[in-house]
Amino acid sequence: MDTPKFPHHLDCEALTSITADHLPRDGSLGRVRRYPKGADLWQADDPADRIYFRRRGRVEIVTATPDERPVVLRTIEAGQPFGELCVCTARARTRETTAHALVASEAIEIKLNSFLGYLRQNREALEALVCTLCLRLTDTEHRVEVLAHRGAEQRLGRLMIRLGTLGGRSGRGAPRDTVTLSLSHNELARLAGMTRPHVTVTLGRLRRRGLVRYRREGPLRVDVPGLTAYLGRLGREAG
Q1: What pTM was computed for the model?
Q2: Residue whose C-alpha is closest to residue 185's, from 231, 226, 218
């Protein structure tokens, strides 16, 4: 049985999040856009006047802070909506983020006015959008909690536990409660708002404690209960 993404929100998980499957199958809503690897879907000063649904590829949304280290806000999964999810009446806003195609990608682009008109006529899609917004709010609060930690072990450790809860998998032959993350040190650094060398050094310390296991160019295996207990001790000692 799959582990729920948000274990404390099982009632929410019983609802259906909005995906591309909720859109008209005749292609009458929006248009398909294709992006080569490395292309921007939007830049920080572009108007926030349309929503996207990913069809294939891999897209990430990052903070637009040229004077600081960009942080990955979200990596978009297949079928998921992304972009402008605020359905208020303001229309003069700009993105203030950037979206990149990590590999050749394809998305359905829909003007916000057209999408709102569709929601008014389709209650199922509207309810699914509300479910999506609730789950993303929960995810955002957890990300804020992770980034609020200034200590490297706490920040990176909490991030790995969170990623393991969301999408980690149990490796074949791995001890029970060990999850596998297919992320490079560079990807972890961008998610944690840290430098790659800092992530590598921190992972090395955790590996020596037996809390993570990895090899060069291999997956990262995380002992979630052990890491949770260790970070708890750190927090109590700091307090």
Answers
A1: 0.75
A2: 218
